[in-house]
């Protein structure tokens, strides 16, 4: 099913839920009006005690109705979020498979690639890495990062290279990391083409890596983790917070800003936003029902 079909399905379900909510609120309004009308009759037979009993019953009915409505809204929000998260995960998996065959080259000056980025990259790799003539790179496409061309003197955009085979990409990366290539006397940096969320998580280790480098401690950053080679052994940390805590215990001064990236945090924010919208709509319908009830009571007083 396409993304458009899924979105249309969610919109249809939301529309159906809205119609059902409107019908339930109208039924509640009708019952409220019936209770008010019954109050007029009771005043002639049972007096104030009968009216008090009717008001108590009406209050309990409204309370039960809102409790039921609240649970239905929570269930709707959870279902919508679960469907949304499943769709995002599917798209992420598809994108990740493509990124596995790509790498980025940083530091290539703007314009040196000429008319064909693919031809420039292949010729540069063969020349600088001294690849055998029979090596087939099979570059499917290569292009600059999709961003505005930087001003003169600013850092150049990276070049994204997509290889037909994953093994070829890994071989190029290993050789490039070993040889430390340069162009016009400036170093080139080769890395995997990570997904956006992975890039953001890797950036969170920036302060930690600076402190480790200044302290002469070796480290590696596989994907969203950091592996630190301490004198008493190597340890891997899954997030900046744990790594920073260990560094402080070892006497290294490090500060790191931890951002909330858990799925339940995202769910909480989305549910809060959705609950606010639904609550606002139900509040407006509730005010309409209350207004009709007040009008009936005013008629009763007259």
Automatic annotation (TrEMBL):
It comes from the Eukaryota. Residues 1-30, 269-302 are annotated as: Disordered. Transmembrane segments: none annotated. Coiled coil: none annotated. Residues 1-11, 281-302 have a biased composition (Basic and acidic residues). InterPro entries: Transposase_22. This is L1 transposable element RRM domain-containing protein. The lineage of its organism: Eukaryota, Metazoa, Chordata, Craniata, Vertebrata.
């Amino acid at each position: 099913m396409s993304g458009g079909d899924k979105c249309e399905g969610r919109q249809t379900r939301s529309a159906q839920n809205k119609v059902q909510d409107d019908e339930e609120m109208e039924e509640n309004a009708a019952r409220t009006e019936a209770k008010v009308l019954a109050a007029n009759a009771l005043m002639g037979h049972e007096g104030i005690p009968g009216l008090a009993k009717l008001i108590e019953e009406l209050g309990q009915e409204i309370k039960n109705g809102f409790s039921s409505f609240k649970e239905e809204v929570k269930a709707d929000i959870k279902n919508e979020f679960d469907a949304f998260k499943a769709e995002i995960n599917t798209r992420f998996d598809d994108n990740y498979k493509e990124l596995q065959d790509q790498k980025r080259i940083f530091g290539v000056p703007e314009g040196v690639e000429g008319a064909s980025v693919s031809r420039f990259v292949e010729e540069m790799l063969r020349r600088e890495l001294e690849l055998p003539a029979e090596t087939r790179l099979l570059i499917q496409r290569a292009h600059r990062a999709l961003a505005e061309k930087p001003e003169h003197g600013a850092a150049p955009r990276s070049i994204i290279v997509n290889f037909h085979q994953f093994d070829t990409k890994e071989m190029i990366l290993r050789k490039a990391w070993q040889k430390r290539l340069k162009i016009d006397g400036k170093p080139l940096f080769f890395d995997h083409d990570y997904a956006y969320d992975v890039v953001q998580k890797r950036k969170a280790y920036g302060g930690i890596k600076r402190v480790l480098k200044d302290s002469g401690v070796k480290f590696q950053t596989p994907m969203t983790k950091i592996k630190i080679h301490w004198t008493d052994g190597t340890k891997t940390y899954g997030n900046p917070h744990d790594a920073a805590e260990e560094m402080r215990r070892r006497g290294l001064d490090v500060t790191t800003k931890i951002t909330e990236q858990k799925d339940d945090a995202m769910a909480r924010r989305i549910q809060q936003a959705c609950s606010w919208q639904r609550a606002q709509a139900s509040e407006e319908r509730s005010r309409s029902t209350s207004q009709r009830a007040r009008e009936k009571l005013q008629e009763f007083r007259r």
